[in-house]
Specification:
By secondary structure, the chain is α+β, with helices and mostly antiparallel strands. Helix content is 42%, strand content 12%. It has one domain: 3-Layer(aba) Sandwich (Rossmann fold), CATH 3.40.50.
């Protein structure tokens, strides 16, 4: 709707994870948003963000962004779960912010 093109990589495994797909995408787009349901702090997305920052920094035109769950326990109630876990609007906001960086 806003004329922004994105590339989505759906990692099916975390050990091993598809580093080549991530590296190819970062070199192509010069940006990275890591979106996952794990906690922001100590979540697996932090490992991906760190590795991209270390190995592909020269290819980045903007800081790596993480969209993740709040650093708290995940509630069982759907209403509270929606407040804790990342939602579509959270990802869309991160995309817009990174696009405008």
């Amino acid at each position: 709707q806003q004329g922004i093109s994105v590339e989505v990589i759906d990692l099916r495994t975390l050990a091993p994870y598809d580093w080549e797909a991530i590296a190819t995408s970062v070199k192509k787009t010069n940006r990275l948003i890591v979106a996952h349901e794990d906690s922001r702090t100590h979540g697996f997305g932090a490992e991906i963000a760190a590795r991209v920052s270390e190995e592909l920094f020269a290819h980045l035109d903007a800081p790596v962004r993480r969209v993740a769950a709040l650093d708290t326990f995940v509630a069982y109630a759907p209403q509270v779960e929606d407040a804790i876990l990342p939602q579509v609007d959270d990802v869309a906001r991160a995309i817009n912010e990174l696009h405008n960086y």
